[in-house]
From TrEMBL:
Residues 4-179 form the Calcineurin-like phosphoesterase domain. It comes from Shouchella hunanensis. It comes from the Bacteria. This is Metallophosphoesterase family protein. CDD domains: MPP_PPP_family (cd00144). The lineage of its organism: Bacteria, Bacillati, Bacillota, Bacilli, Bacillales. Pfam families: Metallophos.
């Protein structure tokens, strides 16, 4: 592939994802998702099914996000309140479509075994030439970025954002809404002053945008965005 087309955090917003991907050229672009497909938005099930299909039929790369980790933890009855507190109820309703009193974990496990297997086995990063794609970032204190734990790659924030990038790669990440990274809140991609870190979480579910970026093999960038539907 000549290019990579990378998509920021989706959080159950299927219509916005579908519209953003009108800019994706499947013949020229390797499609990469940065994680956080579920929670907060109303269409987590549709997003998951759509992305699974893109991985299987079009060779898309779907990385694991911390929200996928929280969902798996909830299924395993660990850190259950953290999942619910961060938009998990919307995901449960999207998957089950019912408010009746049932064993939600068991019902989801029985109805979606392939989806659960898919989420458990999502990769934590993707390398492409001089670029590294990861959900949250890396721990810059480690001598080799490949020594990062899953927790680092899915959860890190300030220690990554505001310290020198120790790698030789441009790191493209999501996780932290760009509104928190810019000096003045805005929904545009965030590029560090050293230009080697690019934030792609447009804060879609908080009234922001779904962000897309085409990276060419020659190092040029082309940005795309999709507004949140009312």
């Amino acid at each position: 592939m000549k290019n990579v087309f990378v998509v920021g955090d989706i959080h159950g917003c299927f219509d916005e994802l579908n519209e953003l991907l009108q800019h994706w050229d499947k013949e020229q672009d390797q499609l990469v998702f940065l994680g956080d497909y579920i929670d907060r938005g109303k269409d987590s099930r549709k997003v998951l099914e759509f992305i699974q299909n893109l991985v299987q039929t079009d060779g898309a790369i779907a990385l694991k996000g911390n929200h996928e980790r929280m969902f798996i933890d909830w299924l395993n009855e660990w850190q259950t309140e953290r999942f619910i507190r961060n938009g998990g109820k919307e995901t449960i309703y999207s998957l089950l479509g019912t408010d009746t009193e049932i064993d939600e974990r068991r019902a989801i496990a029985e109805a979606y075994p392939q989806t659960i297997h898919f989420l458990k086995n999502l990769p934590l990063y993707y390398e492409w030439g001089d670029y590294l794609f990861v959900h949250a970032g890396i721990n810059p204190a480690l001598p080799d970025w490949k020594q990062n734990t899953e927790h680092d790659l899915l959860w890190i924030r300030d220690a990554f954002h505001y310290q020198t990038n120790p790698t030789t790669k441009v790191i493209i990440f999501g996780h932290t809404p760009v509104q928190m990274l810019h000096p003045e809140p805005q929904s545009q991609p965030w590029i560090s002053s050293c230009t080697t870190k690019i934030g792609m979480d447009g804060g879609l579910v908080f009234g922001g945008k779904l962000l897309g970026l085409r990276v060419s093999s020659t190092g040029t960038y082309e940005w795309f965005e999709q507004q949140k539907h009312e």
